[in-house]
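Q: What structure does this chain adopt?
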Amino acid sequence: ACSVGQDSWPLCQGELVPDLSQSPILVQMIHRIAVLIVGLIMFVGYRKAKNELPSDSTLTATIAATFHLWATNLVVGGMYLLTATDGFIEWISLLHLVLGVLTFITIATSAMLIDLALCNEFGGEDE
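A:
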């Protein structure tokens, strides 16, 4: 896996693109790239909601919560690696997992709210 301490985050093995021949490093880099792609999509959605939806709408609030949970979890994940010089601090790992689950739940809630809004706007149900 990526080294721990200073060379572990945001870099891996002290490099932006490390040697991916070892499976643990490959898995960690796929995770990091997926997190960045999801974050970019959420940021675009967050900006769009902020600009196009009423600021007091439930959908705007859930999209904002999702983006803020993601950003917080990004920092917690980095801290998990940076603080692991003599072994991992397990409560940080648990916090990272819980924030990831909460982020997923708020994404799912936002998707359901969008579906409900579209259903109400067009006067029908999706089948």
